Amino acid sequence: MFSELSAAANAGLFILSALVIGFAGVALTRRADMLADRSGVGEAIAGAVFLGVTTSLSGTVTSVTAAAEGAASLSISNALGGIAAQTAFLAIADITYRRANLEHAAAELTNLVLVTLLMLTLSIPLLAYSMPAFTIGAVHPASLILIVTYVAGLRLSQQVRASPMWHPAQTPETRRDLPDVEEEGAPSTARLAAEFLVLMGTVGIAGWVIAETALELSAQTGMSQAIMGTLFTSVATSLPELVTTLAAVRRGALQLAVGGIIGGNTYDVLFLALSDAAYREGSLYHAMEPRHVFLIALALAMSAVLLLGLLRREKSGAGNIGFESVLVLAIYAGALTFQIALG
Questions:
Q1: The CATH number of the domain where 111 resides is what?
Q2: What is the pTM of this model?
């Protein structure tokens, strides 16, 4: 269907789908915050599960669709490029929060666990890449290990929240994760859940359109799938993270904002496991190119800087922006410049 359209028409559908994803992200934030309060799981876990998984749905669909059609490079670049883009979005959110450094105000032990989990899961594709191309039914064992590690990490995060062994120092700028007082006439939990599922479906459909139009645009314009995935689909499918993070900061749900980005990043690594199952030409990890290894290293470096910022909890830097936000944006800008230079 999309192959019959012109490049301009495909580009228009691509942009329209990105806008749909962005607007749906705003609606998802409010419902995720309310569901977090009602379920008692806390904003950091809600950010990782409700927001992280849901806002990443479009990216999941994009990567899996691309892998199923044999476009391994687009699939991998979309997943890994999204992690870098979303970490940069958190730095942008830090700029918009003027009271203090966001990583200081949103102190939460769960987020430290989630960043560590992210770095652990990022190492698994690298290990698989360096191993023989062994598969079971065209699926590499690393994909199962990724899923098990992710589930175990979320369980550990819940245990840490329930029984923390240490607490961050409280300062006047620290925003505690307390349930909001709901206004009279607030929608029921069942209605919230139903609306949440509808928005998830909308985001998923938009992600499929982005994958299909991206493949056609790559062929029509001569742009490599790696560049298309790193610069365009990863940013477009990551728009919910940007929108929901900024919206969460505006609502004062700081742990939700940080947890949504970190949780979304961790879930994005699972794109590779799901895409590996959809990719029928062997191990997806062995379809990786040097530039994909570069993207993993980039994601690890940006995550390490973020972890240092969460541990250091710098109260305020220039304009209340922490050192980690400056470094994250600088690293991301340098990486994009390098990727574009590679062509």
A1: 1.20.1420.30
A2: 0.80
